[in-house]
Amino acid sequence: MSAFKSARRLSLPTTILRHAVLLCTGALILAPFVWMVSLSIKPASEIFRVSFSFWPERFYGIENYTKALTEVPLPRYMGNGVLVCAIILVLQILVCTPCAYVLAKLRFPGRDLLFSMVLIGLLLPHQVLSLPLFILSYQLDILNTYAALIFPYVISPFGIFLFRQFFKTIPDDVVHAARLDGLSELAIVWRIMLPMALPALIAFSIFSVVGHWNDLFWPLIAVRDQSLMPPPLGIMVFKNEEAGNDYGPLMAASTLVVMPLIIAFLAAQKWFVEGMTGGAVK
Fold first, then answer.
1. Mean pLDDT for the chain?
2. Every domain of the chain and the residues it spans
3. Which distant-in-sequence residues (6+ apart) come within 8 Å of 139 by Cβ?
4. What angle do CA 25, 28, 64 make, to 5 degrees?
5. Is the pLDDT of residue 162 over 80?
6. CB < 8 Å & 24+ apart, contacts of 24-31
7. How far is CA 160 from CA 95, 116, 136, 188, 248, in A?
8. pLDDT digits (tens, 9 = 90+) for 85-97
């Protein structure tokens, strides 16, 4: 009993320390976003002041956000982002789900080798593959098209890994029962496994959409036409040859671009956490 009481006494400082660390980390992460929103409602004369204030003396949000939406085709850029991210996500699910099912539930020679190749794919940053992907896109004559923004991301090693780990937690008896009912392997994937892996699907969807919505490196290489630019590349258009970047509208555009991601994550955070931790325990 004394040991239990001692553990309870020690738990309070530990809890306080843990929450303090989490609060400090959260504050450091949120600070750039708070600063971005603050700059988006300030006039240029207040942005470079030495003193800091979140709320401006002269509210300039309407002008900045109007300029962000009208000076450049920001809605078109965001529409491009929605289109590209949606197509990439659908194609990734169509490719990754059957691959993950094969690696999780079927036994065949070379399965472990294939999974090792997936893990190697996780270790390679996308920038390493940019040159061969650029040459391949040039040979396929898809540069400066939507296909150039979509093609390199159709296969996702992370998606295969995440779905495979989640499928491993589903009992084999479920698969055997589906086979006894006469379902084919593809039917088992789409009608049994994927609905049961909904948390993993939502978690992967968030990772995929956020990653490709914010991607700047590959679109900067693959497209030149402004009508094809995704949001991160599009907001770089806010340039002023005399004064440099127009920071007020630039921060307003950045806020508009980031806001859908924040809303989507807050709406799906429960399934996101469940999907990320579901494959950790078998």
1. 85
2. 2-60, 65-278
3. none
4. 145
5. yes
6. none
7. 8, 12, 23, 17, 41
8. 999 999 999 999 9
pLDDT tens digit sequence for 214-233: 998 999 999 988 889 999 88
DSSP labels for 207-239?
Answer: HHHHHHHS--HHHHHH---GGG--HHHHGGG-E
CA 98 to chain CA mean position, Å: 22
The length of the chain is: 282
Q: Which pLDDT band, with edges at 50, 70 and 90, does 239 fall under?
A: low
Contact between 130 and 219 under an 8 Å Cβ cutoff? The reply is no
Q: Which pair of structure tokens corresponds to residue 223?
A: 């497209």
Contacts of 84 by beta carbon, 8 Å cutoff, 6+ apart: 146, 149, 150, 212, 230
**Torsion angle in degrees (nearest 10) through CA of 160, 118, 108, 164:** -30
Residues 6+ apart with CB under 8 A from 114: 103
Q: How far apart are the first and last CA of the chain?
A: 33
Return the pLDDT at 233. Answer: 87
pLDDT value of position 243: 44
Task: Using CA atoms of 107, 112, 113, 115 in order, give the dihedral in degrees to the nearest 10.
Answer: 100
CA distance 206 to 197: 14
Phi/psi-derived region of residue 58, left when phi > 0, alpha when psi is between -120 and 50, beta in every other case: beta
**Fold exhibited by the domain 65-278:** MetI-like fold (1.10.3720)
